[in-house]
Amino acid sequence: QVQLVESGGGLVQAGGSLRLSCAASGGSLSNYAVGWFRRAPGKEREFVAAINWSGGITYYADSVKGRFTISRDNAKNTVYVQMNSLKPEDTAAYYCAATGGSPAVVAVAYRSWGQGTQVTVSS
Fold first, then answer.
1. What is the pLDDT along the chain (123 residues), one digit of tens a residue?
2. Quick one: pLDDT at residue 1?
3. C-alpha dist (Å) from residue 23 to 31, 78, 79, 107, 114
4. Do residues 52 and 37 lie in contact, with contact meaning Cβ atoms separated by under 8 Å?
5. CA atoms within 13 A on the CB side of 63
6. What does the H/E/C string look like for the chain?
7. CA-to-CA separations, 58 to 16, 19, 45, 66, in angstroms, rounded
8. Could you tell me which of 13, 70, 77 has the C-alpha nearest to residue 47?
9. Which pairing describes strands 46-51 and 58-60: parallel, antiparallel, or unpaired?
């Protein structure tokens, strides 16, 4: 199965930008749809964005639509999420996940998960 590692998290001010990366090994990401999820302290995990194998189909949570952009570079075996106009409520641990099926907004659809990267947005 494919292994995933997230990177790019950090501390930013409200209104700032950050780009997260999801790098895969042990398999080609071109065979997988990839989703991003996040979990804030004391809250349940929530869907952020997803992308199909080619990048031609994307989905976004209403809370991030217009601010976040998911993309992929299959030659680099990497999926990205560009996060702009960040808000304090975006503070969370962010996780990427892969599925051999179509992109989904529910976590149970994904079989491979990364360890997460922390994003903290200060006010």
1. 899 999 999 999 999 999 999 999 999 999 999 999 999 999 999 999 999 999 999 999 999 999 999 999 999 999 999 999 999 999 999 999 999 999 999 999 999 999 999 999 999
2. 82
3. 14, 5, 7, 19, 9
4. no
5. 12
6. CCEEEEECCEEEECCCCEEEEEEEECCCHHHCEEEEEEECCCCCCEEEEEECCCCCCEEECCCCCCCEEEEEEHHHCEEEEEECCCCHHHCEEEEEEEECCCCCCCHHHCCEECCCEEEEEEC
7. 23, 17, 19, 12
8. 70
9. antiparallel
- Report the chain's terminal Cα–Cα distance, integer Å: 40
Place of tokens 């106009």: 85
CA-nearest of 123, 121, 110, 102 to 45 is 110
Kindly state the tokens that stand for 60: 């976004």
- Give exposure, 54-79, as e/b (b: 16+ Cβ within 10 Å): eeeeebbbeebeeebbbebebeebbb
Closest CA to 32 of 68, 6, 3, 8: 3
Q: Which amino acid is at 83?
A: M
